[in-house]
Amino acid sequence: MQPKISPDCVNMVTLEAPTMRDLEGRTLGHYRIVEQIGAGGMGVVYRARDGRLDRDVAVKVLPEEVAKKPDRLARFEQEAKVLAGLNHPNIVTIFSVEEAEGTNFIVMELVEGDSLAQVLPPSGLPLAKVFDIAIPLADALATAHERGIVHRDLKPANVMVTPEGRVKVLDFGLVKLTEKAAAGGAGADPDQVASRVATLTGEGT
Q1: What's the Cα-to-Cα distance from 29 to each of 9, 48, 100, 204, rounded to whole Å?
Q2: Is the pTM of this model over 0.90?
Q3: 152: Cβ–Cβ under 8 A, 6 or more apart, which residues?
Q4: How far apart are CA 117 and CA 197, in angstroms?
C-alpha cells in the first residue's frame, strides 16, 4: 500500500518547456520523477526518488509564468534560501537549492500523513486534541515570525499530521519576507494564532 502524501510537501522545481504530465519518468539531476501526486495554485507536485541518497522526495513544478520571469524567480530563490535557514521540527525542511540542466529547484522533505483539512471534522476537534495541534503549530509560526517570515496561505490544507501525530507546516510558496527577514526579529502575530485555534475548535465557523 502506497503511503499517503500531501501534495504540498515539496521539492519546488522550475522547468522550462515540457508539459506537467510529461515529467513523469524523467530525471532531473539525480532526482527521478515517479508520478504526479497533487496540484495546486502554485504548481503540480510529483513524487521523486533521490538517487544519490536513496530516499523519496517531492517535486513541485512552478507555474510557467513564474519560471520565465527573472524577477519572480529571483525572489522565489531568495525566499527559499531564507526558509532553508529555519530549523524546526514542525516546519517542512528544505534540503538544498540546486540547478540541473538549466532547471533551478529546491529540494525539500516529503511528509507523509493526512492534511488537517482531511482530519478536521465539521464540528471541530475536541479541546484535548486541539492543544496537540495548536501548540506545535503556534510554535512553528513563532519561529518563522522571529526570522521575519510570514506564511500568507496558512490553512488546514497546508498543515500535515503525520502517522506519528507530528504537525508539519507546509507550502511557504506565498511567504512574505518582512524587513527583519535577514536579521531575525518580530514575534508571532497573536491574532493569526488565535484565528487558527478558532478554526480547530469550530468557534470560527
Answers
A1: 20, 11, 5, 46
A2: no
A3: 174, 175, 176
A4: 14
Q: How far is CA 41 from the centre of its chain?
A: 13
Report whether pLDDT(193) > 60: no
Q: What 3-state class would DSSP assign to 57?
A: strand
pLDDT in tens, 84-111: 888 899 998 888 777 777 666 777 889 9
Q: What is the 3-state secondary structure (H, E, C) of 94-141?
A: EEEEEEECCEEEEEECCCECEEHHHHCCCCCCCHHHHHHHHHHHHHHH
Question: Rg (Cα) of the chain, in Å, rounded?
Answer: 17
Between these two residues, 128 and 163, which has the higher pLDDT value?
163
Which of the following is catalytic: 50, 56, 114, 153?
Answer: 153
Distance CA 145, CA 89 (A): 15
* Distance (Å) of CA 56 to CA 39, 105, 109, 133, 171: 18, 16, 8, 26, 18
56 is catalytic: no
Tell me which amino acid residue 100 is: A
CA separation for the pair 196, 188 (Å, rounded):
13
Convert the pLDDT of each residue in 165-187 to its tens digit.
Answer: 999 998 776 556 655 554 444 34
**Residue 198 cell numbers, joined:** 478558532
